[in-house]
Amino acid sequence: MFLAVVAVVILLMKIADIHPVANWSWFYVMLPFAVLFFWWEFLSKWIGWDKRAAERKMAEEMKQNQETKRKNRGF
Predict the structure, then answer these.
(1) Backbone angles phi, psi at 3, to 5 degrees
(2) What is the pLDDT of residues 10-65, one digit of tens each?
(3) How would you class 10 by CB atoms within 10 Å of its CB: exposed for 0-12, middle for 13-18, buried for 19 or more?
(4) What is the pLDDT of residue 75?
(5) Residue 22 in contact with residue 14, Cβ under 8 Å?
(6) Are 61 and 35 in contact (CB under 8 A)?
(7) Per-residue pLDDT, 29
(8) pLDDT at site 54
(9) What is the pLDDT of residue 31?
(10) Do residues 15 and 6 make contact, with C-beta atoms less than 8 angstroms apart?
(11) pTM for the complete prediction?
């Protein structure tokens, strides 16, 4: 997420012609967006972070459902 914020700030600095970024090539301005795309589309799936996050969310929902059922039974 930090890289996304940095990429947007760099893009806004290029558009607004703020000094250090105004002289950069558009390639270097758009490079963080390419890295983000590669990360979100490929690398996170290869590492398995998306699957672990989904499993963690399902386990949390199951735990919450069990607590709700237990409260509804009066225990």
Answers:
(1) -65, -35
(2) 999 999 999 999 999 999 999 999 999 998 888 777 777 667 778 888 999 999 99
(3) buried
(4) 61
(5) yes
(6) no
(7) 94
(8) 81
(9) 95
(10) no
(11) 0.58
List CB contacts of 50: < 8 A, sequence separation 6 or more: 44
Q: H or E stretch including 4?
A: helix 2-15
Quote the pLDDT of residue 53.
Answer: 79
- Which two structure tokens, joined as six digits, stand for 44? 């996170």
What whole-number distance in Å separates Cα of residue 45 and Cα of residue 31? 21
Name 44's Cβ contacts closer than 8 Å, sequence gap at least 6.
50
In sequence order, what DSSP letters do the residues of 5-65 get, joined into one string?
A: HHHHHHHHHHHTT-HHHHTS-HHHHHHHHHHHHHIIIIIHHHHTHHHHHHHHHHHHHHHHH
How far is the C-alpha of 25 from the C-alpha of 13, rounded, in Å? 12
